[in-house]
Amino acid sequence: MKQVPGDPAERIAVAMDRIVRLLAGVLLKDIEGGEQKLKVARLKSCGFGNTEIADMLGTTANTINVAVHSLRKKRNRRKKSPK
Fold first, then answer.
1. Where does the chain have alpha helices with state H?
2. Phi/psi at 43 (5° precision)
3. Where are the domains of the chain?
4. What's the pLDDT tens digit per position in 57-74?
5. Phi/psi of residue 42, nearest 5 degrees
6. What is the largest CA-CA distance in the chain?
7. How is domain 8-80 classified at the CATH fold level?
8. The pTM of the whole model exceeds 0.85
């Protein structure tokens, strides 16, 4: 394992970030190759921000913003439609 410089709190923060990224990878594994909007929706539901999601998926924050907007619009249409 790589040695992380800095105080113990910084080392813990780096380790936690690695754990989060590993868990996100596991979370997305079952939809690998799937639709990006589904991945974005799943990561948003886990509390990740748009920039974090963009980093994880290897895309831009603007692309994620558009996907989130589209998902919200779709969700709002479902809420308004009569059952």
1. 8-29, 36-45, 50-57, 61-80
2. -70, -40
3. 8-80
4. 899 999 999 999 999 998
5. -65, -45
6. 57
7. Arc Repressor Mutant, subunit A (1.10.10)
8. no
